[in-house]
Design goal:
The chain is an alpha+beta fold. The chain is 65% helix and 6% strand. Strands 1-4-2-3 form a four-stranded antiparallel sheet. Helix 2 packs parallel to helix 4 and helix 4 packs across helix 7. It starts with a helix and ends with a helix.
Length: 261
């Protein structure tokens, strides 16, 4: 049986309406407000960093440089300004929720279950609520063949470096569980990819399952070793409320050496 281009090519597409954008923007503000209320200031900073990073990559990289991103509004191809605002919302929304999801998991936040419930619940329910706003009039899509190969290289290199560091510490307590780290990266992308697919925002076609699995394995996961490193060094210096972290207790051998001197 011949394999069609539709199966081979991964072209993530979303169809949504203005109400979805409005409601999602409100949720993001409420979510950030809850994080600030509970003094999760480090999480807020990292989440905002994720939103800005996604905006730079999506609008600057995918739209301006590689020309792989397109946005249609009311059936017409949007100009650069219209495209920017749609991609700005989309990037800030998924950047903030993705990076907050990752940060609270890696940090083992004691309120982890509440933050994850809010994020996943909203991803699953928001499309149903947005149906009250009528038919989808905004369509976004991007091709991935140009850069997925490079993403794969980044993922392999980053995890190989991490594993080499872990192997050098063989016999000592591992500073991170690489399988857990990979699972977090997979789950955060799978969560919203799956919610888009089952709610009809991402159309079901011959490439849908491939898009779901490949994107989930690759697109967020490639940055997990770097995100872990950022989290690790940040938490050694700052608490979650941005106060200065207490200095770690000195190693006993260092204390004995100091006393001899």
């Amino acid at each position: 049986m011949p394999v069609t281009d539709e199966v081979l090519n991964i072209i993530p597409t979303r169809n949504l309406n203005l109400l979805y954008i409005i409601l999602d923007s409100i949720f993001i503000l409420v979510f950030l407000g809850l994080l600030i209320w509970k003094k999760r200031r480090s999480t807020v900073l990292f989440a905002l960093f994720g939103g800005v990073l996604y905006t730079i990559v999506d609008f600057g990289g995918f739209y301006l440089m590689s020309h792989t991103r397109t946005v249609y509004i009311d059936g017409a191809l949007a100009d650069a300004w219209g495209t920017f605002w749609v991609l700005f919302w989309m990037s800030m929304s998924y950047g903030i929720t993705n990076f907050a999801f990752i940060w609270v998991c890696v940090s083992r936040d004691k309120l982890l279950k509440y933050w994850l419930f809010l994020i996943v619940m909203w991803w699953m329910i928001a499309p149903s609520i947005s149906e009250l706003g009528g038919e989808a009039t905004i369509t976004t899509s991007r091709t991935t063949g140009v850069y997925h190969g490079w993403m794969g290289i980044v993922l392999v290199v980053s995890y190989v470096v991490l594993i080499v560091l872990l192997l050098r510490k063989e016999g000592q307590k591992a500073f991170v569980n690489v399988l857990t780290l990979c699972l977090i990266g997979f789950c955060v992308q799978f969560g919203w990819e799956f919610s888009l697919l089952v709610n009809g925002i991402r159309p079901m076609n011959a490439a849908s399952i491939k898009t779901l699995l490949v994107n989930s394995c690759l697109e967020t996961n490639l940055g997990m070793p770097v995100i872990f490193a950022i989290n690790y060094f940040w938490r050694r210096r700052f608490n979650e409320d941005l106060s200065r972290a207490a200095l770690p207790a000195p190693d006993q051998s260092e204390v004995e050496q100091t006393q001899r001197i």
